[in-house]
Write a structure and sequence with these properties.
Helix content: 40-55%
Number of strands: 16
Strand order of the largest sheet: 8-9-7-10-11-14
Radius of gyration: 25 Å
Largest sheet: 6 strands, mixed
Shape: globular
Structural class: alpha+beta
Distance between the termini: 61 Å
């Protein structure tokens, strides 16, 4: 009899992005990664187990003794609680008969299902005393303040909770930052530094002060893990997914900022990178490109690294991912931006699943620009504000990666031709006035552009091809149903970097 343990940090993103202070975000990210990849691995060996995978806050290990498996679970949960103060974790133990050829696969399936159920139960190992007369932490605003510190040489001081204090004082930077640094050194680029505050990112943004949060996640990973039949195969698959995630984002950032020789600041932070999960914070004009290139690169790397054994179990070497991109002012709470990007990623996954049902393994992306202090659920907002009638929809989101590339090319084409942004807004407003009015407005803009500027007319014609609409601005979906990408183009237009 063998005992499989599957363990996972609860709400890791909420812990890492609890504040807008990059020092605490970096500290939280590095601390969780250290516990996950070092302490958890050490506890496996101390309890006589065999590690299967570690990364992204998740871990799996195998034991030959029920007592040791449960002891390991308790010790890992205690380690997270003791070292972070507020982060909790959940683990399950599943026994299986190792003489059964399908025993391990059944244990993996039972373990993942059991982990989901246990997480939904809401039980946590960390409980903090709170009350109406306790001063709240001035950083996260969640827990009671326990520490006091002064901001450098300034007179201003802060009261922070134990959790934020631990994050601030944890000196190690995230492993992924060191990985990017090594890669850029190896390829002859400048010795770079990462931003100390969100101001360092916002000041390099166009428009100034706007940042983007990217959340990316592998598609149908739970189903893929449950197809794995052996421990060796699970270890290999987990390892290549983790490596592909890290190498993909590192290479994308190295290429994107390869000309940073005169500017040693790399204006990007990677708060989470492990397993198939990724979070990136970057200047707004870079986020769509980073997300798009990452989705393509990670799919390519996984396909190249996958063994024949795992490919046969999966039935394919193709593993895609989806991403959500939330763009807003840098003062927007980071936790709220993450929630939005996570919601957008869910929408992208639905589109990807629809493609999968048609036997297509496609990476998809969704985005939203936030210009108001509050916003609602993505699906509800689009149903209420972008669905004008049963047969007319004023957005094409979510997009596949190829469609996203077309949208970005369209924005760049118009910027290159110096197309008046006011004309795009005229077209956007006409979309709300009805199908025929929008068609008439587009025709008028196109004819006038042809009479005054041939380059702008050619740009409009090229945009029509990139967005796959004919006649513009509408695209026929099914039957009489119409949708238009021009509203999406207007929304993302200010945040697409011009071609260099």
């Amino acid at each position: 009899m063998r005992y499989l343990v599957i363990h996972d940090v609860d709400a890791i993103q909420a812990y890492v992005l609890a504040t807008n202070r990059l020092r605490e975000i970096r500290g939280a990210s590095a601390l969780i990664d250290s516990i996950n990849r070092r302490d958890t691995r050490r506890l496996v060996h101390e309890n006589g187990g065999d590690g299967v995978y570690f990364g992204g806050g998740s871990a799996a290990a195998e034991f030959n003794n029920s007592h040791r498996a449960n002891k390991f679970c308790d010790e890992v949960s205690k380690c997270y609680a003791d070292r972070t103060g507020t982060a909790s974790s959940t683990g399950v133990v599943v026994d299986y008969d190792d003489s059964d050829p399908e025993g391990f696969q059944k244990a993996v399936r039972q373990g993942y299902n059991g982990l989901r159920k246990k997480k939904r139960s809401g039980r946590r190992e960390t409980q903090l005393f709170t009350g109406p007369y306790l001063k709240r932490c001035q950083h996260c605003g969640i827990f009671p303040a326990e520490r006091h510190y002064r901001l450098g040489d300034e007179d201003e001081s802060r009261f922070v909770c134990a959790s934020c204090s631990v994050k601030r004082t944890y000196g190690r930077e995230p492993d992924i930052h060191r990985h990017v640094r090594r890669l850029m050194r190896a390829t002859g680029h400048a010795e770079i530094e990462f931003p100390a505050t969100l101001d360092d990112i916002g000041i390099r943004a166009k428009p100034k002060g706007y940042i983007g949060v990217i959340y990316a996640d592998g598609n149908r990973m739970g189903d893929r893990f449950q197809k794995i039949k052996t421990k060796t195969a699970l270890r290999h698959f987990s390892d290549i997914v983790d490596k592909a995630t890290r190498h993909a984002i590192s290479s994308v950032l190295a290429r994107k900022f390869a000309d940073a020789t005169g500017t040693p600041m790399l204006p990007v932070v990677v708060p989470l990178c492990g397993g198939d999960d990724l979070i990136v914070v970057a200047p707004a004009q870079h986020t769509m490109d980073i997300a798009l290139e990452y989705l393509r690169e990670v799919q390519r790397l996984i396909a190249n690294m996958m063994s024949k054994e795992v490919e046969e179990m999966q039935g394919t070497s193709e593993v895609s991912a989806c991403a959500g991109v939330a763009i807003a002012k840098q003062a927007t709470p980071m936790s709220a931006l993450f929630d939005l990007s996570h919601d957008l990623c869910r929408q992208a996954k639905r589109r990807s699943y629809d493609e999968y049902q048609q036997n297509r393994e496609v990476a998809c992306l969704d985005f939203q620009v936030v210009t108001t202090p509050t916003w609602g659920n993505v699906e509800e907002t689009r149903r209420e504000q972008f669905a004008i009638s049963d047969d007319r929809r004023l957005t094409c989101r979510p997009y596949t990666v190829d469609e996203t590339q077309g949208l970005i090319r369209a924005a760049r084409e118009l910027k290159q031709a110096k197309f008046p942004q006011g004309k795009l807004h005229d077209l956007y407003r006409s979309l709300w006035q009805g199908k025929h009015q929008a068609t008439l407005t587009y025709s008028t803009i196109s004819v006038r552009a042809g009479n005054t500027n041939d380059e702008q007319r050619r740009a409009l014609d090229n945009v029509k091809e990139y967005l796959r609409v004919d006649p513009p601005p509408w695209r026929q979906v099914t039957g009489q149903s119409l949708e238009t990408p021009y509203g999406d183009l207007v929304e993302i237009y200010p945040f697409v970097k011009e071609q260099e």
